Amino acid sequence: MKLLITGGAGFIGSNFIHYMLAEHPDIQIVNFDALTYAGNLENLGPVERNPHYTFVKGDITVEADVTAVFKAHVMDAVVHFAAESHVDRSLHLGPEAFIRTNILGTQRLLDAVRAHRVRRFVHVSTDEVYGSLESEGRFMETSPIQPNNPYAATKAGSDFMVRAAHRSHGLDAVITRCSNNFGPYQFPEKLIPLMIANALENKPLPVYGDGRQVRDWIYVRDHCRGIDCVLRQGKAGEVYNIGGMHDVPNLEVVRLILKLLDKPSSLIQHVTDRPGHDRRYAIDSTKIETELGWRRQFDFETALKVTVDWYLQNRAWWERIRSGEYQKYYAAMYGNR
Ligand code: NAD
Ligand code: TYD
Question: What does pTM read for this prediction?
Answer without folding.
Answer: 0.98
